[in-house]
């Protein structure tokens, strides 16, 4: 009885509220759930809609995307899931929230090591974890391992160790050298920090300019955002205040992470979803990734933005993505253990 | 006569507790390994930092809030009327925006330090710079000066309603103004201060934006790491519930400590205090003193936002989506405010009508949603909202032959629900402290004259507690406008509010692009502040 009462009251309230906002109708449409900031994918969506006539409804969710999808279950309107970082992508796959996709276009464009088994996810773009350094330092090469060198004491800035970009790097370190060495390295880096591990990658550049530290890790595309002046004059100055070096692991290459997408398990518009994914790896879309977002395109031979190309030739670390994903939780625990963020 | 109130109160409480119960169920799925890890490496620091932060913020917000409330009620000086509402302004600015603004303004390459260097003759920040804002001290000061209005609002309402004859008696007996404040006004205002400080502290505890941005690792940040980085939702739910137990414990202790006190006025009603007029240097000093929190908590971040917005509009123009987002934000917040204040009134008034223990316990229980971080609460809401959708379908499908889909989640009703659960405590706290000042003898008199509960509410309690009701509504409205984590997770596809727009920009580090949205949130928050000020002046 109580339930019934509530049901009625609720439905009435809902009807009122539903009138206030538009509920997407089911024509040639596509629902995109993304943890990627909408500003970064907007140009891609607009171009896709223009060429295909399919309208894309977006919801940007930061944390809790898997939880929301799982709760929505079979009735979920989600067609395409988009995320940044391997960890987040493999997490979606492991929780059974994606479905396999067989597509010649996708398999041709995306190298085998940058997509999930059975096409349960696909990388769309790459970003490298690079070193921002004070200009007058005259630094030209550096390894990730060297960041623990005591000569950098009080000279390193970093964002939170628990940020996915950093946990992925630590996971890659574990894949290279094992857990014990990774812990010792983290302790070394922690001891070298000039300030609390917080903020974003661009804060590293600003803090180097502000004299708080000399070096710090940041993603490659922020260099493009800052130096292109797209974030305003102030950021252009931050970008100009640093030298950018592509570091590597000893005996390896530069650590990269991905942004990627998958078709949702219960996608109501599956065909449109696959079409969207295929569009995202097409030469046109890959060009937008490079030009609008300053990322490395996932498609071989696609052009790279001049600002990013000027950073040097990227030699991607050969460690398998599956390995990095596997060590992610261990990496996060190690970061707690050494008190990196304290 | 009393049963309907008890029932209604029970219904509200049921809905508020449902997501908490869902979280508890989630928590049972965790592994004990987590706690070993937490006890060894996380909790010592997180617990210490959380306690320091709460003590610091409580102290700053309590002193600034109570002090400024007393200043503008007990004294008269030029600008006092303006200050009575201006002191509320920091409420309109979300903490994460304040944190960003201060970091930018006080950064070594920002305007303040650049000017200082020019003045002192240094040409590089490598030669001279001030301590970093990203520290515990920075975080305490910042949160304290932004959250003090919670204390100011509740305490000032109390001072206004306080029987001035008590204060007059104290004066007649030879107590100085200071003594009157410390020995009469302050102890009498304790319930209000307690409510205000606990609201401020819960805001501080659940704050993820500002604290994380300034590098302070609180328990809330640990919940986040466990959940998001290690995909351990049961573990995160366990920490959230442990933290909830802690908060409930603290609230209970505070209530136990004042269990024997009664704060009701006599039936004649309070005669408002006549402020003491200040002249000359004393008036100027009072003015400056009242100006400090307004400048630090509002004027600095707000003028920063105006400056950034102007720059941005020149650089990139105005996004047309902002209009829709503003409408969405205001409509949603208004609906949520009406819903929340109504439910709070039901819960609080049930206690008064029945005067038994059960509704009082329900009222306590209904307030715990505020002690759960918004993002975690959202996770608890998900299964409840989806469950409601299943029930709707169970009724609907046999009738119409088709599913309505995810109605609760898809219509935004889940958002209203989340705001209700989260902010009921604010509304209930405000209404409760207002009602506590209305003498029960008024109820009894009306009862003797044959007035029912509804009639008493309409003719006695609502008019007498109007300022308290309005300030409760104001707080809820502004909080709904600022709410981010639950909004982000529970909103329908394609539905954006100012806060989600702001976050989307901030998340990719383009805070500047968010300046206009931030400014609109602040402006939206100003409207109820102004309304409140007008009502206030009409009242006295």
Condensed summary:
The complex is a heterodimer of chains A (342) and B (540). Chain A is of the alpha/beta class and 342 residues long.
Explained architecture:
- The complex is a heterodimer of chains A (342) and B (540).
- Helix content of chain A is 44%, strand content 16%.
- Chain A is of the alpha/beta class and 342 residues long.
- In chain A, strands 1, 2, 3, 4, 5, 6, 7, 8, 9 and 10 form a 10-stranded mixed sheet that branches.
- In chain A, helix 2 (38-52) links the parallel strand 1 (29-34) and strand 2.
- In chain A, helix 6 (164-177) packs across helix 7 (179-192).
- Mean pLDDT of chain A is 89; it is low at 1-26.
- Chain B has 540 residues and is an all-alpha fold.
- Chain B has 24 helices and 2 strands.
- Chain B has helices spanning 3-27, 33-74, 80-86, 95-106, 111-120, 136-161, 164-172, 177-188, 190-206, 209-213, 219-229, 233-257, 280-316, 321-354, 357-366, 374-400, 407-411, 413-435, 440-448, 453-464, 466-482, 485-490, 498-507, 511-539, and strands at 75-76, 276-277.
- A two-stranded parallel sheet of chain B has the order 1-2.
- In chain B, helix 9 (190-206) runs antiparallel to helix 18 and helix 14 packs across helix 18 (413-435).
- The longest helix of chain B is centred in the N-terminal third of the chain and has 42 residues, at 33-74.
- Chain B is globular, with a radius of gyration of 24 Å.
- Chain B starts with a helix and ends with a helix.
- The mean pLDDT of chain B is 83.
- Chains A and B meet through helix 1, helix 2, strand 2, helix 3 and helix 8 of A and helix 2, helix 11, helix 13, helix 14 and helix 16 of B.
Report the structural category of chain B: mainly alpha
Rg of chain A (C-alpha, Å): 22 Å
Given as residue ranges, the uncertain stretches of chain A (5+ residues, pLDDT < 50) are: 1-26
Structural class from helices and strands of chain A? alpha/beta
Shape of chain B: globular
Beta-strand proportion of chain A: 15-25%
Quaternary: heterodimer
Most extensive interface, residues per chain? A-B, 74 and 80 residues
């Amino acid at each position: 009885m109580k339930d019934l009462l509530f049901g009625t009251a609720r439905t009435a309230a809902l009807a009122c509220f539903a009138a206030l906002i538009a509920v997407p109708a089911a024509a040639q449409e596509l629902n995109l759930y993304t943890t990627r900031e909408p500003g970064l994918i907007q140009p891609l969506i607009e171009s896709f809609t223009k060429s295909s006539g399919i309208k894309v409804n977006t919801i940007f969710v930061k944390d809790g995307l898997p939880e929301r999808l799982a709760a929505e279950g079979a009735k979920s309107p989600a067609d395409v899931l988009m995320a940044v970082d391997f960890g987040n992508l493999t997490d979606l796959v492991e929780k059974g929230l994606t479905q396999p996709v067989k597509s010649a276009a996708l398999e041709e464009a995306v190298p085998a090591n940058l997509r999930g088994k059975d096409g349960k996810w696909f990388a769309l773009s790459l970003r490298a974890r690079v070193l921002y350094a004070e200009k007058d330092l005259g630094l030209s090469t550096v390894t990730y391992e060297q960041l623990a060198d005591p000569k950098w004491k009080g000279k390193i800035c970093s964002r939170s160790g628990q940020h996915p970009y950093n946990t992925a790097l630590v996971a890659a370190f574990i894949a290279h050298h094992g857990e014990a060495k990774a812990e010792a390295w983290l302790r070394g880096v922690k001891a070298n920090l000039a300030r609390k591990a917080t903020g974003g990658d661009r804060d590293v550049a600003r803090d180097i300019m502000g004299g708080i530290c000399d070096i710090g890790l940041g993603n490659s595309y922020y260099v493009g955002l800052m130096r292109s002046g797209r974030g305003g004059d102030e950021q252009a100055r931050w970008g100009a205040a640093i030298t950018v070096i592509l570091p590597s692991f000893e005996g390896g290459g530069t650590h990269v992470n991905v942004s990627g997408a998958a078709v949702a398990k219960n996608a109501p518009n599956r065909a449109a979803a696959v079409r969207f994914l295929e569009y995202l790896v097409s030469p046109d879309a890959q060009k937008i990734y490079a030009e609008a977002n300053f990322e490395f395109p996932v498609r071989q031979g696609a052009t790279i933005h001049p600002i990013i190309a000027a950073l040097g030739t990227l030699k991607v670390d050969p460690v398998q993505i599956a390995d990095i994903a596997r060590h992610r939780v261990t990496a996060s625990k190690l970061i707690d253990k050494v008190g990196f963020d304290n | 006569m009393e049963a309907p109130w008890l029932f209604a109160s029970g219904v509200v409480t049921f809905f508020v507790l449902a997501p908490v119960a869902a979280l508890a169920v989630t928590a049972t799925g965790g592994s004990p390994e987590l706690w070993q890890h937490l006890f060894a490496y996380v909790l010592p620091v997180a617990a210490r930092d959380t306690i320091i932060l709460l003590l610091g913020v409580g102290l700053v917000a309590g002193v600034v809030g109570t002090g400024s409330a007393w200043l503008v009620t007990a004294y008269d000086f030029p600008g006092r009327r303006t200050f009575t509402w201006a002191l509320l302004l920091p409420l309109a600015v979300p903490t994460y925006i304040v944190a960003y603004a201060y970091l930018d303004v006080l950064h070594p390459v920002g305007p303040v330090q650049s000017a200082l260097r020019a003045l002192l003759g240094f040409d590089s920040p490598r030669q001279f710079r001030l301590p970093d804002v990203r520290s515990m001290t920075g975080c305490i000061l910042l949160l304290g000066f932004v959250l003090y209005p919670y204390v100011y609002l509740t305490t000032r309402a109390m001072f206004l309603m306080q029987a001035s004859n008590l204060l007059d008696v104290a004066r007649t007996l030879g107590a100085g103004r200071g003594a009157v404040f410390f020995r009469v006004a302050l102890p009498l205002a304790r319930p209000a201060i307690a409510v205000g400080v606990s609201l401020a502290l819960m805001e501080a505890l659940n704050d993820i934006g500002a604290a994380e941005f300034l590098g302070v690792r609180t328990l809330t940040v640990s919940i986040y790491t466990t959940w998001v980085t290690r995909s351990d939702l049961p573990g995160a739910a366990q920490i959230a519930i442990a933290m909830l137990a802690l908060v409930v414990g603290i609230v209970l202790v505070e209530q136990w400590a004042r269990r024997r006190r009664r704060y009701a006025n006599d039936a004649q009603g309070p005669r408002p205090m006549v402020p003491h007029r200040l002249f000359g240097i004393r008036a100027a000093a009072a003015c400056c003193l009242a100006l400090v929190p307004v400048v630090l908590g509002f004027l600095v971040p707000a003028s920063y936002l105006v400056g950034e917005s102007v720059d941005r509009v020149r650089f990139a123009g105005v996004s047309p989506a902002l209009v829709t987002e503003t409408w969405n934000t205001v409509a949603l917040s208004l609906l949520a405010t009406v819903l929340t204040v109504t439910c709070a009134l039901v819960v609080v008034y049930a206690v008064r009508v029945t005067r038994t223990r059960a509704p009082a316990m329900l009222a306590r229980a209904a307030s715990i949603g505020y002690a759960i971080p918004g993002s975690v609460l959202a996770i608890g809401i998900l299964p409840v909202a989806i469950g409601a959708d299943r029930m709707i379908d169970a009724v609907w499908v046999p009738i119409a032959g088709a599913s309505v889909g995810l109605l609760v989640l898809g219509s935004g009703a889940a958002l209203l629900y989340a705001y209700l659960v989260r902010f009921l405590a604010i509304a209930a706290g405000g209404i409760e402290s207002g009602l506590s000042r209305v003498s029960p003898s008024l109820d009894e008199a009306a009862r003797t004259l044959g007035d029912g509960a509804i009639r008493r509410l309409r003719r006695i309690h609502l008019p007498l507690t109007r300022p308290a009701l309005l300030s409760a509504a104001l707080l809820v409205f502004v909080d709904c406008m600022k709410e981010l984590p639950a909004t982000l997770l529970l909103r329908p596809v394609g539905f954006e509010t100012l806060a989600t727009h702001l976050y989307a920009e901030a998340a990719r580090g383009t805070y500047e692009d968010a300046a206009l949205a931030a400014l609109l949130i602040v402006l939206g928050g100003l409207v109820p502040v102004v309304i409140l000020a007008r009502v206030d002046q009409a009242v006295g």
